[in-house]
Design goal:
44% of the residues lie in helices and 16% in strands. The chain is of the alpha/beta class. It folds into 2 domains: 206 residues, Rossmann fold, CATH 3.40.50; 180 residues, Glycogen Phosphorylase B (Rossmann fold), CATH 3.40.50. It has a 7-stranded parallel β-sheet, sandwiched between helices. The chain starts with a strand and ends with a helix.
């Protein structure tokens, strides 16, 4: 029995990982329930057409904003105490009733929204079944994104911790989650990151180039890093180590601005194959993480799936992240490019100059290191082995 805050395969990184998990284990192994907003419109993944999936509509996944005034916190708390808990009881009764019709052997719950924090351990207790939990993002970040007030957030964090405590196995995406969340459970905590078919990777073309091509693909949620990166290039008129810098941007949308003659290719959203082909020619792939103080937990605990995609191409990576970010510590153990932990233009330019201006052999070694990390840490085989271990199944 699978319970998640969204259906698998809808395009979100976590949902794509979940879809690959289901495909590996087999769609017949799961009876899935997705707790979604009341106005949610579902477009089924054609590759998961045979999956048994039921949508459970819920109007309390996003907190209703309290009106301003001195009584606003009290109204917000009241909304949580009454509205949220009523929905929680309804969904719990629904899931338990449906599960008893075809009794499952265990419950896999993805803790990716407030309702899932509170629902998972209650359903497991009511059914008396083993609970497996999967965590992609830190709970504090998810609750802030959903507009819950600080009092409700504190209560929901305790619900998250109860679900971890009730679990017999927990899968997380970063070493930081693995070490810190272990305080809330006696269950084994393992890493489960997305895997790709690394053998399809190809190195950049050997043609002589007159500029540096830096690529970015995906969604941009690290606006502070991105803006600082563009300001740094402006400060040197978009020339680094004797060559013009050209940016290649792939994604559904991004903020573009420059105070000088920028050279930016915005190519919009592309398919996976097109993205791999376009990014494979880059001298560097740009990986920003948030420097904003209110997103410090996201940088510290989450692990960017963009990194997996970049490394699988055998491309060096420019990691632009605060010192406490999980990806910075990951890079320190196995360098595959260059890292900059500052928003200062001079420091960003220095990092770019140091890498792009180095001997070609250094850059080639970084490419080889990227492929090696992809093969040893992010291959499809590594992913499926981790899934088997997590689900308690044989390969």
């Amino acid at each position: 029995m699978l319970i998640a805050g969204s259906p698998a395969g809808m395009g979100n990184v976590g949902e794509i990982i979940l879809a690959d998990l289901i495909r590996h284990r087999g769609i017949d192994a799961f009876h899935s329930f997705a707790v979604v907003p009341t106005k949610y419109h579902w477009k089924p993944d054609p590759e998961l057409g045979g999956l048994s999936l039921e949508l459970l509509k819920c109007n309390r996944l996003i907190a209703r904003p309290a009106s301003v005034g001195k009584f606003a916190p009290l109204r917000s708390i009241f909304n949580y105490q009454v509205g949220f808990k009523r929905e929680l009881e309804r969904l719990c009764d629904t899931l338990v009733t449906k599960a008893r019709l075809t009794p499952p052997k265990q419950i896999l719950a993805v803790l990716n929204n407030a309702m899932m924090f509170a629902l998972s351990h209650r359903v497991a207790d009511a059914l008396g079944l083993p609970l497996l939990t999967l965590v992609w993002d830190p709970p504090e970040y998810l609750l802030r994104q959903a507009n819950f007030d600080r009092f409700s957030r504190a209560r929901l964090i305790r619900e998250f911790e109860r679900s971890l405590s009730r679990s017999c196995r927990v899968a997380v995406v970063s070493e930081e989650m693995q070490s810190d969340y272990a305080a809330h459970t006696k269950a084994p905590m393992q890493l489960l990151r997305h895997g790709l078919r690394v053998e399809k990777a190809r190195p950049a073309s050997g043609e002589v180039k007159t500029d540096w091509l830096i690529g970015f693909a995906g969604s941009m949620y690290s606006t502070s890093a991105w803006r600082a990166f563009c300001r740094a290039l402006d400060s040197v008129s978009w020339r680094v180590a004797g060559r013009q810098v050209r940016l290649r941007i792939l994604g559904a949308g991004i903020e573009l601005s420059s105070s000088s003659k920028a050279c930016i290719e915005y190519l919009g959203f592309r398919s996976t194959d097109e993205t791999q082909s376009l990014m494979a020619d880059c001298d560097l792939c740009y990986l920003p993480q948030p420097f904003e103080s209110h997103l410090s937990d996201l940088a510290h605990y989450s692990f960017p799936t963009k990194l997996t995609n970049y490394l699988a191409l055998g491309r060096p990576v420019f990691v632009h992240a605060p010192p406490h970010a999980s990806v910075v510590r990951f890079f320190a153990q196995r360098p595959f490019g260059v890292v900059c932990d500052s928003l200062q233009a001079a420091n960003i330019v220095e990092a770019l100059e140091g890498f792009l201006g180095s001997d070609a052999t250094v850059r080639e070694l970084a490419s080889l290191s990227a492929l090696d990390v992809a093969k040893t840490q992010f291959s499809i085989d590594r992913f499926t082995q981790a899934v088997d271990q997590f689900l308690g199944t044989s390969a």
